[in-house]
Design goal:
The protein has 310 residues and is α/β, with parallel strands linked by helices. Helix content is 37%, strand content 17%. InterPro entries: AB_hydrolase_1, AB_hydrolase_fold, AB_hydrolase_sf.
């Protein structure tokens, strides 16, 4: 798909404000979605929306719809979506520097960084490495270091934390219908909406022999996930956190399960370690639907608005 071509499913959710473009970064071009403010005001506030570890910019479509007066800049991170062919190294510093390059390219002097899942970790490192680019942080079910299950080796972390989300990256599919079936059976997506269709359709890319595969590169996943536990860049960013920060947590996890990604013990640990961060519990969502169903977005938007008002 070129920067000017949209699938029918994507066109149904992104709206008329949506503009995809390709931005020069290290090793090639990065696919970036921009939702321009409906007013066309060049001085409108901006948020940079950073997606999760196996996700894409499409995950932000409902958030963009809820902020018609705001510019939304949402890149496909290196190794994902329309940026899947950008070369390694991956890792939080690399992603953070890519996001800063995108903001420079678009002449955005400062933005509220809103990160979901791994995007929250990227946002923290962005705020540390490029503090002038970030006014405040909204971390959505991510950002605080993960506490892996006891006894899990680093090389097994992706499967232990992500489960089927990691396993499907190794799979190929004969067509879009077969890929959609995987997602329709996913417990986190029991409520299927137009955004779900667009999200899944955008994620499929051609593979060898006429088959298809998920867009996220396996090597990007494994290089990135290890940093989400105790990566130096993450721990340094947290220890030097100076930006106003809200941390939103979901009550259910990646498989719609309890305990969630951040169980009570993890919430208590990180709130005690970082009292400067405000923790907000979001109700009746899982790790995905906190930004991909309307009831999740309705709880996230007030925190984003509050950050913009600063």
């Amino acid at each position: 798909m070129t920067a000017t071509e949209l699938s029918a499913s994507l066109a149904t959710v992104v709206g008329e404000r949506y503009r995809p473009l390709d931005v020069p970064v290290r090793g090639g071009t990065m696919r970036v979605a921009v939702w321009e403010p409906r007013s066309g005001d060049p001085q409108a506030p901006t948020i940079v929306a950073v997606h999760g570890i196996t996700s894409s910019h499409v995950a932000w479509a409902l958030v963009a719809q809820a902020l018609p007066d705001v510019r939304i800049v949402a890149p496909d991170l290196r190794g994902r979506g329309g940026s899947r062919d950008l070369p390694a190294p991956y890792g939080m510093p690399s992603h953070a520097d890519d996001v800063a390059t995108v903001l420079d390219f678009l002449d955005v002097e400062q933005a509220v960084a809103v990160g979901h899942s791994m995007g929250a970790f990227v946002s923290l490192v962005l705020a540390h490495r490029h503090p002038e680019k970030v006014s405040s942080l909204v971390l959505v079910d991510g950002g605080m270091p993960l506490l892996p299950p006891p006894g899990v080796a680093p090389e097994d972390l992706a499967s232990a934390v992500l489960g089927p989300a990691a396993e499907r990256l190794e799979m190929t599919f004969p067509d879009l219908a077969a890929y959609e079936e995987i997602w329709r059976n996913h417990p986190a997506f029991s409520e299927w909406v137009d955004l779900t269709t667009a999200y899944v359709d955008y994620d499929l890319v051609p593979a060898e022999g006429g088959a298809f595969r998920p867009a996220t590169r396996v090597e990007a996943l494994h290089e990135d996930i290890r940093e989400l536990v105790d990566g130096d860049s993450l721990l340094t960013a947290l220890s030097n956190l100076r930006h106003p920060t809200s941390w939103l947590v979901a009550p259910r996890g990646l498989m719609d399960e309890v305990p969630p990604l951040y169980p009570d013990s993890a919430r208590e640990h990180w709130v005690a370690a970082h009292p400067e961060v405000r923790m907000v519990a979001v109700e009746d969502v899982n790790h995905y639907t906190i930004v991909m169903l309307q009831r999740g977005v309705d709880q996230v938007i007030p925190l984003v608005r509050e950050a913009l008002a600063r």
